[in-house]
Specification:
- By secondary structure, the chain is of the alpha/beta class.
- The protein has eight helices and eight strands.
- A hairpin with a 1-residue loop joins strand 5 and strand 6.
- Helix 3 runs parallel beside helix 5.
- The longest helix has 15 residues.
- 42% of the residues are buried.
- This is Haem-binding uptake Tiki superfamily ChaN domain-containing protein.
Amino acid sequence: MPGVDTLSGLLEAVAEFRTDDYTLPIEKTALDRARRSLEETGLLLLGEVHGVRENPLIVLGLMRALGLTHLALEWPENLKPQLDVYLSDGTGLDHPLWWLGDGRVTAGHFAMLKAIPELTVTLFDGGMFTGDWSQRDALMAERVLAARIEPALVVAGNAHTLTSPTELGLPMGACLASARPAVESVRIQYGNGSYYNIEPRVSRGYAAVAGLHAAEEELLVGLPEFGEATVPHLPVELLRDRLGL
């Protein structure tokens, strides 16, 4: 199911998303490294491609395996009051910022958040894009550190969770690694499938091993096959009107 543009459609997709029958395969060596990152730095990073149906299941699997109740997401920080309402009574999903359609927010995420008891969620995207990629990432890292939510899983797009500089600039992960040198970053390694980011897209990659495993200098979650998430997405003109832009 691709993007949805009605609240009823989103709520139906959330209700249909199953979290109780998912098990993340985990290699002990990789799990030990993830635990060490949490013990030594308070943080574990997870990099995703936005709009994949299985992303929130991987988050859920890691949270359960590591016994975590603190989760940080690359969502607009001013959505926190609406998220608290949703976690309390299932409403609050009508704010236009939920409906940007870029795949960060999916029906599966809302189902996953309800499936973790005593969950605390931090949102660390400031929502203002200045055109300076590294500046945005530095500010996201600052918000993660200022939240003092350790131990926590920190989830963002996979360009932001790398712990070394890239051609884009200095990622959030590198900023966090500067402050917490032992922090580990887990990358979801995607095989073949489809995802939704503004529109339906297809990706053909390679992932031979399913689940969390260690591969030389990095931790990976292999996802050999994956599907398109249900993403709340309103037309740009309607979003601008509702945001007062």
